[in-house]
């Protein structure tokens, strides 16, 4: 039996070497080092598609029976009826379609934050010229009634969607009464934010649940509101409001 022991040990050694090679195969000199597969990332939807998604959600709210039923009632926003607020919400779609056809000759193109720095409707008297113009515009748009407003909104959204494939996002955009222009993509960020905020205003005004937006346009709106909040209140105020109830400030609104 003793003469079998070395053979058994040799066999066990060979088996150990074989198992090690299976776990850690040697590469031939000419073989490239194997690469790890990259982590797949979720494709980020561009801002034009985000805008279409947000506008579609808002248009769905304009079609709600509760909006038409409360058309002449006061809304949750001071100075707006439900009709006027619906018109202002729709204006974020009518205006985007018109922005593609605007003439911006001689106007400087400014950045997103420069735009909000010049905005005369943020934290000002409700009866000032800028806010009065906003309310009057919504009311005029809604004057033909809820069905006509909805039909016109759908038509302009379809017009914008048709133009989408040819857009780069760097085209100039804006309104007739702005003294400046913005890039289309940055202009659409302002519209996405308006759509998210005023959809909630209108849904609350007529007593129904606020529609849920797709995550990407909603994130864009929240990022913009957060930036405006930080600009007005500072970083610490926003962090405390979101993470520390015991020392959260009373107000972190960005608008």
TrEMBL record:
The residues covered by the Mycothiol-dependent maleylpyruvate isomerase metal-binding domain are 54-203
Q: Name one GO molecular function term.
A: metal ion binding
User: Could you identify this protein by its name?
Assistant: Mycothiol-dependent maleylpyruvate isomerase metal-binding domain-containing protein
Q: Write down the species.
A: Glycomyces buryatensis
